[in-house]
Amino acid sequence: MSVASSTLLAVAREAAAHAYCPYSNFHVGAAVLADGRIFPGCNVENASYGLTICAERNAIFAAIASGARRIEAIALACVDATDNAPGSLRMPCGACRQVIAEFAAPETPVHIDGVGTLTVADLLPNAFRL
Ligand code: THU
Q: Would you say the CB of residue 43 lies under 6 angstroms from ligand 1?
């Protein structure tokens, strides 16, 4: 199923409103299109900082837990990045890139709010695969 990037980005921005981020105050939302359904995710932090999980992985794991396996598109919104913030503040972290590569083909689009559309291969060339 094809879903407009604007639709996926809107879901990602909405999901950011649910972020639990009292430590960074940096709200992130993601939306994953898989099996024709859209799965939202947000970052969830923890007082033990290393237990924090990113918005992208929460959305991906929700899709996988529902039985989906193949990701068709992803959107990401770092809604607290200001207009003049560097693009790097809006990009997916390295851990999320590896998890995305597990379930999405290299040509899969990743719509990044305020940046544009990249592919999984753009974000993680030569991804590790077992
Ligand atoms: N964060 C994400 O949710 N996704 C990313 O790709 C980068 C970082 C979250 C984790 C943490 O809650 C906050 O942003 C600051 O690092």
A: yes
Dist CA 39 CA 18 (whole Å)? 14
130 occurs within a structural domain: no
Per-residue pLDDT, 81: 97
Pairwise CA distance, residues 52 & 113, whole Å: 22
Q: Ligand 1 pocket test: which of 26, 45, 112, 123 has the largest number of ligand atoms within 8 Å of its C-beta?
A: 26
> What are the E-state strand segments in the chain?
28-34, 37-42, 71-78, 109-112, 116-119
Tell me the average pLDDT across 46-53: 98
What's the domain range around 77?
5-123
Amino acid 2: pLDDT: 80
